[in-house]
Amino acid sequence: MRLTPLVIAACCAALAAPAVAHAQPHPVAPPAAPGVSVPGGRYDHAVTLKFRAEHGTTVRYTLDGTTPTRESRVYSPGRPLRITEDTNVTAVAFHGKQASVPMAYGYLIKTKEKPLARFVVMSDVHVGDHEHNDKKYESFFDTIGSVFPHPDAILSNGDMINDNGDGKGPDHRIVSDIFQANLKRKGMTGTQVLMSNGNHDDSLAAIRAGYPKAWFPDSGGGYYESDVKGVHLLTVNTETYNNDTAQRTWLKSRLAALTAGPANANKPVLVQGHRPTTGTTMDGQQASNPKLAEDLSTFPQAILFSGHSHLNINDDRSMYQGDFTSVNDGSMSYVEVDHGYQMVTENGLADRFESPTAQALFVEVYKDRTEIDRINMAADRHDIYTGGQWSASWQPPYASAGTLSGAGWTVRLKGSTNQQIKDNFRYTAAQRNTVAPTFTAREPLKAVTATGGGTALRVAQAADDQMVHHYRVDVTDTTTGAKAVSSKVLSDYYFLPRPNVLDIPVTGAVAGHRYRAEVVAVDAYGNASRTASLAFKG
């Protein structure tokens, strides 16, 4: 790295003084982020990676989605990194006390077996203009192309625009223009686009007017059937389903016909509908249409994809199997988490349940299984508010584009009867994960000085076989017996890379007072770690 030379300047106004003034050296800029020899994406073979970095820097990396530190593994130029399974690779270049921004790359490692069909499933696009979305969707389609260069279909599962009964229907044309421009730019000329109706999409007439007929080929009720290379897709209108007898009759009759006979018993039928149905994903949050769950209950071949909730797909509760398979497909605009938690922001703990993260599912249907991968379009660490203003529309480039937001799910329909297929389901309530997080750091808690002054409790992130969802944090002023902090703090799992520590401010800590902190790490299923504790002075 080329450093700025020290500049020695003589002050013309000080000729009477013999001293020569030495200018202060310019601050040394952080090194550039490392590049990688093989871009992230989907591969049908193992990949061998080499990092590119400025001369004189040291590259350190992680393979678990965490942020590399000076204690992380060092990359040696003579020893390329071999990736043989689905992995997030995160790298940072270090030079002296300076560190680059972390760069993360997601790799899906498959076999040479070709799927019957490939689908990108997205939801809650919420586009309202070109200014904030043109560049964003160029990046998103670049990410799509890195995984599926030529997807057979892109499903946009409702809420393409931001209509709230205020006449935004013409905005569908903006979505159409953005999608068509990127399909052309990426050479995805054979890709079908298939859309469902959401609660922010204005009227069915506005949808029909905004897109090519092939993108929304309904016959009047907002529901329709598609064939994607022999894989059947049934699109339902969840805005009317519960009280739409004709639609219910159509769905049940088509499912009965498509699953009839031994030859079809183990073939999946994809169903997309904007709103999740009751008793399924994410513990039933934001669910509706109980009659949809009722109608699907006799068809274990059905795989229902739903959006609407904006609930993130990092959480393994996004996949649920009972009488059929139900999958949360996240959001392309911003994600949400369960309410009742706080996030660590630049302004300290804040009541947040949103993050400016965009995600989608990548689905491959094979003869004997359906593989579903979770991909981040953008998961850089930002607050949803900047200066008190809503700021979900962060612009590219995204250092996290194409990273994996969780391990893939595999749906198999095994059995000769519907009941046998259900009995062989893998992602059921009875098989929920029971492994609790563990604190792995020697000192999981420390008292530190917060960035803006004052005392903060530093929590070294715990480890889990899926993800740590949040921490139960209690800090007591033992001098007075008063609670200084009592909160459930989200672990920042929706960012990639995840921060290694969380600094939780102990607001109002009094110098000289004694405090006791107790912290428990909890995963998405409620499994809790042992309590980590720390006594410290304010």
Provide a descriptive summary of the structure in words.
This protein folds into three domains: 12-109, Immunoglobulin-like; 117-431, Purple Acid Phosphatase, chain A, domain 2 (4-Layer Sandwich); 445-537, Immunoglobulin-like. It has six helices and 35 strands. Helix 2 links the parallel strand 12 (153-156) and strand 13 (192-195). The longest helix is centred in the first third of the chain and has 15 residues, at 171-185. The radius of gyration is 26 Å and the shape is globular. The protein starts with 34 loop residues before the first strand and ends with a strand.
Brief characterization of the structure:
By secondary structure, the protein is mostly beta strands. The protein is built from six helices and 35 strands.
Largest sheet: 6 strands, mixed
Backbone CA Rg: 26 Å
CATH architecture of the largest domain: 4-Layer Sandwich
How much of the sequence lies in strands comes to 25-35%
| CA distance, first residue to last residue | 42 Å
Which structural class do you get from the secondary structure elements? Answer: mainly beta
Please count the beta strands (DSSP E, at least 2 residues each).
35
Helix content: 10-25%
By CATH's scheme, which homologous superfamily of the largest domain applies?
Metallo-dependent phosphatases
Low-confidence stretches: 1-24
Shape: globular
Oligomer: single chain
Task: Quickly count the domains.
Answer: 3
> CATH topology of the largest domain, which one?
Purple Acid Phosphatase, chain A, domain 2
Query: How many helices does DSSP assign?
Result: 6
CATH C-level name of the largest domain: Alpha Beta
How much is the average pLDDT? Answer: 94
